[in-house]
Amino acid sequence: MKKCAFLFSVFCFSILNAQINKNVELGLFKVNALTPGVSYELGAGKNSTFNFEVSVIPIARADSGGDFDWVLFPALGAEFRYFTNMNRRVQKGKNISGNSGNYVSFLNQVFVTTPIIGNIEYDEPVAYLGAFVYGLQRTYGKGFYFGAAVGPAFFTGDNDPTATLYLDARLGWVIGGRKR
Length: 180
Prior knowledge:
Radius of gyration: 20 Å
């Protein structure tokens, strides 16, 4: 019994130590005002997170005739983020609260192709967007945050997958506590 208690104590200490040495937050609940939605960013490693979101995403496209179409779709998203400059930001005394840093990620978004608003129609009931992204996010006092991301993507909303450019901008608030 003493051996089990000792092993349990070592296990708990190692988990606590791993959480203390993280540069990223253990968890952040965010509300996005620019593209309406909510997200939860879960600390996964010292400099990495998983970000899960439910939102309304705008999609725009121009065809060869010069016509411009746009639509708002309900979407679910998940991405793995690796923050590339957290250690350098800590060394320079810069803010890392609220996962303020630059990151690379692979983003997955699934859309229900019945539009809320807009004039784009797809053959499939569900569409998928995958993107390799370089982004940044900054969180300031009182929880205000902004973010931007860009990268190559592919979209499957019609019968043929399409290569495209992923652009994202975010403004919102972090709800709840941050560690710094």
